[in-house]
Amino acid sequence: MPTELEGQRLWHVILGPGAWRPMDRHRGVYVSPLVTQSVSLISLDELSPRSFNFALVYADGDVTKRRAIDTLRDVPLRSGQSPIPDIRAILARPLTSLTLRLEHTDWWTWTDSPGALHCTRQLGLDPTVGDGSAHNHARPTSDLMLYLAHERRAGRHPTAAKLARQQGSKWQAGWASVIGQLPDLKTLELVLETFAEKKNQLENVVECAKLWKFPIDGDGAAYELVWDGQVESTRWSRAHKDDVKDRMQRVLWYDKCSDFEVRVVRFTRKRVVA
Asked: How far does Cα 4 stand from its chain's mean position?
């Protein structure tokens, strides 16, 4: 949903406390399960960095195979908590690929008529715009999406921070900033789906997406994700239930739709040449 993609939800899922912790994975951490005598996983909370129900212990350059009991030697545990001696700790894998999907009911304007012409009623998406609210000035309308595409073609690539300053906002809207905090990311895949009746609107989004760039925070070197030059096109259909067919004249337009268009746009990691 755009509310999750453009708001703070994506940040919490990837970067929030107890989530994937990509910066720690980039630095090098062991993933160690903590177990009680009942062999159930426990939450560390304030005891050490945590990724879901596992402890993260900084490797500090040591990439040898280790036991959980060794990696957790310096982690303060509550009374009665201890790792099983023969459980192995493994090095956490970095986050190298990410897929974001918008299904046909995920767009802000998915219920609007395919024939609607106003920019606030057509499909729109831009990684530098959106704070999770439905207000027209706070989400990527089709006109704003096309304007930003024009700017990019002219070599003026907008950033969420720049747009926030222009609008006098302290909140860095959009979701490009979250992508930029994944230092090991090599591939970003966007799966965009809509009703076949909105195919032309989807194509407009895809054409704009080809110009998007995602700067990546690295260790000194500058990298960015850019379109890989290909767009994958697929479509699928669903069968209507008999009761829906019987009341076709009374249902909303999108309940009558049975065909859907899907576009997959991928962005790959490139080094920025000064």
From this structure: 9
What is the phi/psi pair of residue 67, to 5°? -85, 150
The b-or-e profile of 18-30 (16+ CB within 10 A means b, else e) is eebbbbbbbbbbb
Degrees, nearest 5: CA angle 231-156-188: 35
Tell me the two tokens of residue 146: 């096309």
- The pLDDT tens digits of the residues spanning 42-51 come to 444 445 677 8
Q: What is the pLDDT of residues 76-97, one digit of tens each?
A: 555 555 555 556 667 888 999 9
In whole angstroms, what is the distance from residue 14 CA to residue 260 CA? 29
List all residues 6 or more positions away from 177 whose beta carbon is below 8 Å from its beta carbon. Answer: 160, 161
- In 3-state terms, what secondary structure has residue 212? coil
Round to whole Å and give the CA distance between 109 and 194. 10
Give the whole-angstrom CA distance, residue 89 versus residue 86: 10
Q: At residue 214, what are phi and psi to the nearest 5 degrees? A: -120, 95
- Using CA atoms, how far apart are residues 77 and 85, in angstroms rounded to an integer? 15
Residues 6+ apart with CB under 8 A from 234: 262, 264
Read off the pLDDT of each residue in 267-272 and give the average, rounded to a whole number: 95
Query: 258: Cβ–Cβ under 8 A, 6 or more apart, which residues?
Result: 237, 238, 239, 240
